[in-house]
Predict the 3D structure of the following.
Amino acid sequence: MQDDVLTQAKSLLKAYAGPPLKIMEVCGTHTHEIFRLGIRQLLPPSLRLISGPGCPVCVTPVSYIDEAIYLALEKDVLLTTFGDLLRVPGSKLSLAQARQKGAQVRMVYSPLDALAIAKQEKREVVFLSVGFETTVPGECLAIKAAEEEGIANFSLLCANKTMPNAYQALAGSADAFLYPGHVVAIAGTQCCEELVAKGISGVVAGFTATELLTALACIVHESAKQKPFFVNCYPRVVKASGNQAAQKLIADYMEACDSEWRGLGVIKGSGLTLKEPFQHRDARLRFAIPKQPGRANPHCRCGEVLKGNILPTACSVFGRACTPEHPIGACMVSSEGTCAAYFQYGQG
Amino acid sequence: MERTVLLAHGGGGVQTSELIDSVFKAHFANPYFTADDAAVLPLGQERLAFSTDGFIVSPPFFPGGNIGKLSICGTVNDLACMGACPLWLTCAFVLEEGFPLADLERIAKSMAETAKEAGVTVVAGDTKVASKGQVDKVFITTSGIGRLASNVKTSGALAKDGDAILVTGDIGRHGAAILLAREEFGIEAEITSDCAPLWHLVQAIISKTTDIHVIRDATRGGVGTVLYEIAAQSQLGIAIREADLPVDPKVSGICRMLGLDPLYLACEGRLVIIAPEKHKAQLLETLRALPHGEGAACIGYVANTLKAGSVVVETAIGGKTLLPRPTGELLPRIC
């Protein structure tokens, strides 16, 4: 059955003879899987897949890394972070390099692990809170537990992002979006349906070969009707109402704010920050972090890559000065970054 | 900034090679110095294989084995990969002050049992104790000498166009077992390490044919790292078929959750064997009849039509993509 669906989707895509279509995926795991499965080679040249800002590490601005390093080196804070952030270059140093200068930086797999460290430590512990709707509920849970258990030395440095306004900022870059399966599973499909009224098309996709190819085939099929569309192509996980328990957690602890995206600039209402009753756990306020310069390496073109304007291979430092071992830009750091995927899977 | 040793230098990937080339090779260069698992040394009419390996696994006890069993298997398998019958082993212990003697006893017992299974004798050792905190519980280094079977010559450099690539069982199980045993992820699954001594497999296949080009044990860095090393040494391309890779469903589940590739998880009881296609069926039949070889499979081929030094994956849905190169530490993805 799965095989039949896969074969049908493959032949439908292969036979596509309509006008050129640009399809943008906005999920790091989609980017990674599309490369890993070799999906681009199954498509005719008229169907172009472009990678948008789907990796939380990649969209985090340089100034955020600078803020974190300031906390560690100037305020003697113990930083806790997801592993991917360690090697992202700041204006002068990455967190990994700051660690060699004496900064205390520990890698954790969950914000609750960071809270567990705070319980054992006397000094201040800050968790680097990045990520989309999928990651935020865990961060809210850590704040909830810290409040309930009275753990005073724990706070978040927030750079969380939400997708809805980013789609509008990116609307001109693609003919249709491949919406991120897990983000929509949390947030629900309402946002995607509302985008149809604004002329923005897309389908929400899962992560297996069959799910990805079916979603692409669905885009091709719907595009022929020449009007904006939304289809849930990941119904086994995505429900229209989303995950309401997670949504409630977010609503209880966080509120929307303007947020800077690497390459896209500040997008109105596209970030999340702690609500007023919990602002004593906002590291930015708690430590009165001065504004950081956030100077990216001038050769790095991650910003244009994230908007889908250029392919990584068009960047002059790609694969030469900028490699996964020695990254210059954020998109080369995370395995979900577009530049890292192009480098590692050797496609262009 | 001052250059320092990074964890990634010990990951078995590109950075490990860089460290070996820039520091050790630069100072130790000699005609016998080798990139293979063991050095081959002439002694009269005989040829000996000589190998050494250090073990620092954390935790020291894990499902399917412990650091002691691992230290015997590691060196035995390095010798076996050269086509050498393992004969004698030495072992050096570095113990942390406060380490329970009962645990040391368990480790020694399992080393003796594994040595017996592998047909080797532990003939000398050394014991050092470091004060608390200077080492993590117990580190073991084993060295071993083996006698090379005549007519067998294997090396990554000897892979040939058209050769078949075999593995002796499902891949990535040791790495997955260790990740879970560290209890950092809150994931529970019954995955046991594949840790095992493998000379009997090598002995069986070379008794069928000595026309075997490469035998490697896929330890740190996994099968993916070994394939890249062979592609580089032979200056040929390698293709593997995703659909033919034997992976335990529990291991592939863990990998999907943590964003890891089973091709880059360590094995401690798996060989990669490269031999002419015409021997494939006989080799698979021989391996599958033996303990630790039941899951043997052909996973791909060597080709001069592919870019030299590259490893290509033919995906299950008919795509073709480069296998990402191994890089440093395995960091889980964040979403």
